[in-house]
Request: fold
Amino acid sequence: MGKGCLRNEGGVRPIDTIRKLNIAIILNGISRKKQFFYKNILPPLQKEYAITVFETRYAGHATELAKEVVGKFNVILAAGGDGTLNQVLNGILTSPNKPFPTLGVIPLGSGNDFAGAIGALTDAKHLLQLLKQGGKPTDVGFITCKDFNGKEKQHYFINVCSAGMGPATIKQMEKAPAWMGANLRYLTSIIKTFFTHTPEPVELKTQTWNWRGAVRVLAIANGKSFGNRIYLAPEAKQDDGVFNLFVAGDVPLLKFLLYLQTLKQGSKINDSQIQYELSNKIEITSEQPVAIEAEGELVGFLPASVEMKSKAIFFLR
Reply:
C-alpha cells in the first residue's frame, strides 16, 4: 500500500503522496445525519479517492468492522459521534492485522467533543485538505479496570474517560426510551443525574500527587471537553504525552451547577474543592463499585489504571 502505511518519524504520515489512497468509512447506521453524509460528504470524497462505506447495524459493530478492515485500507474514518470514534479506535488498536491505518473522524454525532478539540468539521472540503496534509502522531489513553463480571478488562480512549457523574448519566440514558432521540435522552438524563447522583469515594495516585475524597466528577482528558462542550481541560493537547486531570470533589450541588456555566465557556474554576493536575499515569481505587466510562461508553469498574500511550496512532487533525 505504499508510503501511506509507513510510520514517519518526522511527525506526519504523508498519506497523499500516492493517488492509490484507499479509504474505509465506518458510519453510525442510526445517525440522524446519515442522509447528509451520503448527499454532501461522500460524493466529493469519491471524486478523489477509492471509498468503501461500512454501516454499523448494532451496538459494538463499529469495533468489529474496524478490527476486520485493518490492513486493507490506508485510512479509516469514523463517521458518527464520540462513541463511534471510540469503537473504531479500539477496533484498530486491538486488531491482529497490520499495519495500522491513519484514523480520522467525520463528526455526525450529537456531542462530537474530540472533533471539537481538534477542529474537525462536517465538511468535505475540510476533510479533503486533511487527507492531503496527512495524519499527525496522536496520544491515546489506555484503561485497565474490572469488567461487569469482575475480570480484568482493557480499553482505549482518545478524548476523555471519567468516573462520577459521567457514568451515572450514561446509566440514566440507557433507561430512557429510544423514541426520545439522543439529544433529548442526554438532556433528561443529565438533569436526573444532577439531582440523584451522590459523590463517590475514590483515591487517586500519580507519580507526584495523591488525592482522596468523594467526587462529583473525575475526568482524565486527552481532549478538551466532554458531555457536549463541558471544557474540563481547555489547555489539553493531543500530542504532549500527558493527561489533563479534572477532579471536582464534594462541591455543593447548586454551586456545581453554576460552575458548569464557567466550564462551558472554557474557563478554569478557582475553588479548593476542584483540582487540575497533569500526569501520564493514574491509579484509581475505591472501596465501593465505582463505574468508569470513556467517550460515552461504560467500560467497567474500579480499581483502574489509566496510562498514556504517547503518539500511539496517526490522526487526521
Summary: The two ends are 22 Å apart (CA to CA). The first helix runs from residue 34 to 48. The chain has two domains: 2-134, 140-312. The mean pLDDT is 91.
